[in-house]
Amino acid sequence: MPEFASDPVVTDLIHLTVALAIGFLIGFEREHTHRAEARERSFAGARTFTLTALAGAISGLADPGLFLPVATLLAIAVLTAVAYWATARDKPGAGGTTEIALFLTFILGLAAVREHVLAAAIGGVVTAIVLSIKESVQRWASALSEDELYAALRFLAISVIILPVLPNEPFGPYDALNLRDIWLMVVFISGLSFLGYWLIKLAGSGRGVLLTGLAGGLASSTATTLSLARFARSGVQARELAAGIVAANVMMLIRIGLLVAALARDVLLVLAPGLAAAGVVGAAAMFWLRQGDNHASEQEDMLKLGNPMEIKPALIFAGLLAVISVAASFGAERFGQSGLMIVALISGLADVDAITLIAGRQAGSGAINMTAAAYAIMIAAASNIVLKAGMAWVIGGKGLGLRVAAIFLGMIAAGAVALLAF
Q: What pLDDT sits at residue 328?
């Protein structure tokens, strides 16, 4: 590094330059926005913001303490309050975004010369971005339904408020329960479901059953299978519905892989051949079914997953996870690893995610070996897929049921062979 770069004067000049750049960036955004809104007069633009950042920087350099920066900020606050009062008098209900941004610009300019230059630069860029997305935020707010807003708030509540305060200690029978671990998985599963919901909402079901199956499978392959099977009676082709159902269950295999990767990567190394083989068979069958369709379904609103963030389903999942955790520990202690396989076979009929989480967590802690965990997860997935084949047959009829059952049988066989071979 050149010697002059360590000179205090050069350092101060660099920090002043950063402060000026921050002020100009934020001010330029405000100038552009005001012109786009066709405002005849604006409180502050590029020059005002640049000078405000410079004032923050100079006050910080001139006074190592807080007296001059605070006095300067108070003077700017008085001028800003007077200008806002004049604007609000002529235009009632005027917002205060520009005024708040001006205060923040002063603070960023001060921070740039107080050994926080990187944080100040990042803050300036983020501030400009936040100011520039006004129309997008308004558009999102208008498009968001009340239920969707509450769903987002519930997700924030279970992840930001509840999760951090839960104890991270084992308790209960066999020390098989851990509230923090259980709730963390509730957050993870709910997040995947929430993502699936928005994929469906934004993409729309009118683009075809296949896209609905792919997006719906990320949220709930069982719900997707049930919903698509019902449309067999409304004239939608069985091949198209079968492709959507298979797509949903291929997505289930991907979801299992993501869960295992988050819990115990060593288990994923054992499980990956089975998941990959079953997924390849399912994907190939899905495309084969789609080749038989020369037109896309125009059926709208194909899938009704509802609100993915209702508290009740999250609590039910937490309870199921706790019960299966105790059952798996009991089975493993009483009957060895074969007990875990029995639990996996039964619990897979209800939910494959729960046993995936339990087996992955036990393998990560060393309670069971990696191979046993992989077998348990594969057994649960096979059990779950068999149940959905039966649902497709009973609800959608013989034509749909035969297609889905044949493909699912091939997926199970391919997965089992690959898992045993590797």
A: 64
- pLDDT tens for each residue of 13-69: 889 999 999 999 998 988 887 776 656 556 677 888 999 999 999 999 998 888 899
Burial of 329 (0-12, 13-18, 19+ CB in 10 A): buried
Q: Let me know: does 128 contact 29? Beta carbons within 8 Å.
A: yes
Token reading at 325: 């955790």
More confident residue, 45 or 276: 276
Q: Measuring CA to CA, how many Å separate 66 from each of 22, 50, 107, 108, 295?
A: 21, 21, 12, 15, 71
Considering the domain architecture, whether residues 128 and 158 belong to the same structural domain is answered as: no
What is the total count of domains within the chain? 2
Tokens of 80: 């800003």
> pLDDT value at position 306?
56
Q: Which residue has the tokens 């860029």?
A: 125
Q: Which residue has the tokens 């007077």?
A: 82
**Are 133 and 154 in a shared domain?**
no
The answer to pTM > 0.85 is no
Lowest mean pLDDT among 158-172, 182-196, 337-351: 182-196
H-type alpha helices, 157-310: 163-165, 179-203, 209-219, 221-230, 238-263, 265-291
* 90 shares a domain with 172: no
Domain that holds residue 107: 3-139
Q: How far is CA 351 from CA 66, 252, 381, in A?
A: 60, 11, 9
**DSSP annotation string for 276-318:** HHHHHHHHHHHHHHHHT-SS-----S------TT-HHHHHHHH
